[in-house]
Design brief:
seven-stranded antiparallel β-sheet; 21% strand; single chain; binds protoporphyrin IX containing FE; 10 helices; alpha+beta; 295 residues
Length: 295
């Protein structure tokens, strides 16, 4: 297992409202790092205590869910053979010593989510575009699965300022054109006041803005992949959440410059949406200090 990968997507300029897609090599679909055990343990806890918030599915999604589970298990055994043991009936995650009986899962996507750090969203084609048909989503960034399940892309993104005008049609076209052999990925960023992975809808810090210190701030990055499923023709969307202390940018002056200019240029609506207002002052003064030449 390697250390955490660092994705800091600010250098591309303000891509907040762009597709920002890059080709994905199939072998890079899933990422396992030294946070594997804590991520999987957090998932297990959430599935035990909060199932209805972190797993949801519509009827008649079982066969597409099954397709995802098979695809994932094949992938894991091929690219991470040292991490998993497979028998005809079970799969074991060696690092957490968890063994799952595959037939016990009437919702195969639930098992898929327990095997890796990624979250999974299954998108079903319909006459309203692609809609969210099933998901194992333990690490949402301030949204609730219960409020999005069954909804099409346009409605899912309703709270995102200007999504409808700027992204809605390009995303729909991309979904129509996505092919099995050409998966893609994009990287999304936020600054948050906690390292907690599960951020339900109303997650706000208890820290008053005036007491907030730079050590309370984290860069939260989602590496999102999209791939077409061969049999069902549905689309699988994965979200791999990373979080790094903001102070990582102390050593990265160019990135600090990029992030400062993005924060300064974001529209007021986007700043509100991204929850930047309560942390803006602490964030910008940290970035100023990181950018200032050392004398
Ligand atoms: C190419 C595909 C996609 C693009 C370009 C896209 C774009 C975006 C953007 C720009 C945001 C705002 C994030 C921020 O800046 O903090 C967002 C939020 C979100 N996206 Fe997507 N997205 C895509 C695919 C999907 C898919 C497949 C789902 C399926 C579940 C999804 C679910 C969401 C949700 C739930 C939010 C948060 C909405 C809220 O605040 O209520 N996205 N997306």
């Amino acid at each position: 297992m390697s250390n955490q990968r660092i994705y800091l997507p600010f250098a591309q300029g303000d891509r907040t409202l762009s597709l920002g897609l890059q080709p994905l090599r199939v072998e890079d679909w899933i990422e396992i790092d030294d946070q594997f055990v804590p991520y999987l343990q957090r998932k297990t806890e959430l599935l035990e205590t909060n199932y209805a918030e972190v797993f949801a599915s519509l009827p008649e999604t079982q066969s597409a869910q099954q397709e995802v589970l098979h695809l994932l298990i094949d992938h894991l055994l091929r690219y991470f053979p040292e991490q998993y043991d497979r028998t005809s009936a079970t799969i074991t995650v060696k690092a957490t010593e968890q063994t799952w009986n595959i037939a016990d899962f009437s919702q195969p996507l639930d098992l898929a989510g327990r095997l890796v750090q990624e979250d999974f969203c299954l998108m079903q084609p319909s006459d309203r575009g692609y809609s969210l048909a099933a998901a194992s989503l333990c690490f949402p960034l301030r949204w609730r699965l219960l409020e999005k399940i069954g909804k099409p892309m346009m409605q899912i993104h309703d709270p995102v300022p200007n999504y409808g005008e700027q992204l809605g049609n390009p995303v729909d076209r991309l979904f129509d054109r996505l092919t099995v052999d050409r998966p893609v990925f994009r990287v999304n960023w936020s600054i948050v006041e906690t390292p907690e992975l599960y951020l339900g809808h109303q997650s706000h810090s208890n820290i008053a803005p005036s007491e907030l210190s730079v050590d309370d701030l984290w860069v939260r990055v989602e590496r999102q992949t999209l791939r077409r499923l061969e049999q069902s023709r549905w689309i699988l969307f994965t979200i791999r959440t990373y979080r790094y202390p903001l102070t990582i940018l102390k050593e990265q002056r160019d990135l600090a410059i990029d992030l400062r200019s993005i924060v300064q240029q974001l529209s007021p609506e986007m700043q509100i949406y991204k929850n930047l207002l309560p942390i803006r002052e602490t964030l910008l003064s940290f970035l100023e200090a990181a950018i200032a030449p050392i004398v």
